[in-house]
């Protein structure tokens, strides 16, 4: 049984914060350096928040917690998100 | 005029009181922020590290050799489900910490897989917490935190760290995995302390 989804499930919460579709961005893991499109990350959503993990090393790439008043976005696990310039 | 106000403490469901904002479930939902570690008991260990750096260590046979308690408690998840009268078997933290020399006020629980959660040390003592290794008379499933998890049922259940592997004691309060992402540093379900600032 798979207990994770792919990174596309983060599209909704991320679209609340950013104008561009970050799930299409190239993401580099700050833990192992694995670099791939963010949509290929593993997202654990059956949790108190949304947690995206690296397919290479399982390190946390991104966390989103939505509270009644705020959204917390933790990007510490990403070295970068590479977004095409339009 | 003498005014007595009992205040709002929760809802009654079939004579059972729930903390505010919670609903009753008879299932045991599995919440997870990452892959489930599968830790064999022959490789399992639990450590307590004090504020001076002294480390105390128990392997699985050492844990099994300690006096165990049968525990029946209600549990309350911050995602709003509550499950009543859950039954566990485990070793009290009073037993594990009895010979640990510390003046620390805080503990950070660390788990296999990297999860952390912070608690005041006093909330782990006086019969309030256990290292639980059986649920419903069966060995604790990995999906529920087996082979052993922290059980601190008077706080929201994210404090009851699955796959626990140690406590680090400290004079200062650091924040754990969910607490650094907007969840409350203490998490009392009866005060509905879900998020930072509640």
UniProtKB/TrEMBL annotation, chain A:
InterPro entries noted in UniProt: DUF6510
Protein name: Uncharacterized protein
Organism annotation: Kribbella kalugense
Phylogenetic lineage: Bacteria, Bacillati, Actinomycetota, Actinomycetes, Propionibacteriales
Automatic annotation (TrEMBL), chain B:
Domain of life of the native organism: Bacteria
Species annotation: Kribbella kalugense
SUPFAM superfamilies cross-referenced by the UniProt entry: Oxidoreductase molybdopterin-binding domain
Name under which the protein is recorded: DMSO/TMAO reductase YedYZ molybdopterin-dependent catalytic subunit
Domain Oxidoreductase molybdopterin-binding residue range list: 34-178
Coiled-coil intervals, chain numbering: none
Pfam families referenced in this protein's UniProt entry, alphabetically: Oxidored_molyb
């Amino acid at each position: 049984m798979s207990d994770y989804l792919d990174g596309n499930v983060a599209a909704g919460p991320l679209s609340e914060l950013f104008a561009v579709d970050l799930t299409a961005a190239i993401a580099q893991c700050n833990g192992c350096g694995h670099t791939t499109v963010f949509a290929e990350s593993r997202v654990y959503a059956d949790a108190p928040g949304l947690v995206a993990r690296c397919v290479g090393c399982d390190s946390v790439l991104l966390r989103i917690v939505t509270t009644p008043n705020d959204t917390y976005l933790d990007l510490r696990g990403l070295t970068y998100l590479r977004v095409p310039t339009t | 005029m003498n005014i007595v106000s009992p205040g709002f403490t929760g809802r009654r469901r079939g004579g059972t009181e729930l903390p505010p904002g919670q609903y009753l479930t008879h299932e045991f939902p599995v919440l997870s922020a990452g892959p489930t570690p599968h830790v064999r008991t022959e490789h399992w260990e639990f450590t307590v590290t004090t504020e001076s750096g002294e480390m105390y260590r128990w392997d699985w046979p050492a844990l099994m050799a300690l006096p165990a308690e049968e525990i029946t408690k209600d549990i309350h998840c911050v995602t709003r489900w509550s499950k009543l009268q859950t039954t566990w078997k485990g070793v009290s933290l009073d037993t594990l910490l009895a010979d640990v020399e510390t003046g620390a006020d805080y503990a950070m629980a660390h788990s296999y897989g990297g999860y952390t959660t912070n608690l005041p040390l006093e909330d782990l003592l006086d019969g309030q917490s256990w290292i639980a290794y059986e649920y419903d008379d069966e060995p604790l499933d990995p999906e529920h935190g087996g082979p052993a998890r922290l059980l601190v049922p008077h706080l929201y259940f994210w404090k009851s760290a699955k796959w626990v592997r140690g406590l680090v004691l400290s004079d200062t309060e650091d924040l754990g995995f969910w607490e650094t992402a907007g969840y409350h540093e203490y998490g009392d379900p009866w005060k509905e302390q879900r998020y930072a600032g509640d």
